[in-house]
Amino acid sequence: MKQTLALIVLGIVSTGLFSCRHSRQIAGTSFPVTDTTHHQASAADSASIAAANTFNKEMLAKLRGNYINFTTFSAKLKVDFETEAKQMSGINANMRLHKDSIIWISVSVPIIGEVARAIITPDSLKAIDKFHKVAYLRDMNNAKDLLNIPFDFKTLQDLIIGNPIYLTDSVYQVVKTPSVISFTCDSTMFTSLFNVFADDYVLQQSKVMDKDSTRRRSIELTYGEYKSLDKVKFATLRRVFVEEKNYTKINMEFNKIDFEQPLSFPFTIPSGYSRE
């Protein structure tokens, strides 16, 4: 169950709710640029460089202009996942989020009911495995062994609510087509690739790759079945592909989404549970 909880949490927090299209289906578009090295232009290209810099600044401003501001968020969704060792489908997840404060996740399966619950704060992660009667208590800085993701609370929050992660000003390798703009940018730990729709600069796809080549770790996210909800752009279908030593494939279908509603975040550790 520890693996199941980790995969569900990983799947949920690794997808953002950023993209929105009223008619576009989930896409499998690949990134046209895989060379992530920087190339120096000659002095003769100064005019082209200036034009490219202007375009990049405008693109980033429009992309950041789509950031979602909120106080509370909740969602219900179905999750299927596959690894090299196992497959599970029809998992139900319930998420609640209070900005900068709490991420709450409940996981249930058919017939059995709720099997796991987790609550994440900026300082800690707590989870209970109801099937095996185990509680996991972690300082957030030491939660990587449970989640297997090197993200802090703010990054998890951005992933859930749909704001792009590891988006920096160091944009390069820009490729423009009539429908999609692709580009690469760098952060301290990762190289990130983005596909954004050319008409309104919302995400179609993103990929985060660890700069440490020995890890060979990456997460690729694809967004589809877009809907508008209270002026929020929201993708109700998501596909996640995680690669490290092995692979994990996760499909998610959101069937209920709410913003700015009163929420509770119940979490108790029953007596008799062992603690790890």
From TrEMBL:
- Output the superkingdom of the source species: Bacteria
> InterPro entries per the record?
DUF4292
The protein's name in its UniProt record: DUF4292 domain-containing protein
Q: Which organism is it from?
A: Chitinophaga pinensis (strain ATCC 43595 / DSM 2588 / LMG 13176 / NBRC 15968 / NCIMB 11800 / UQM 2034)
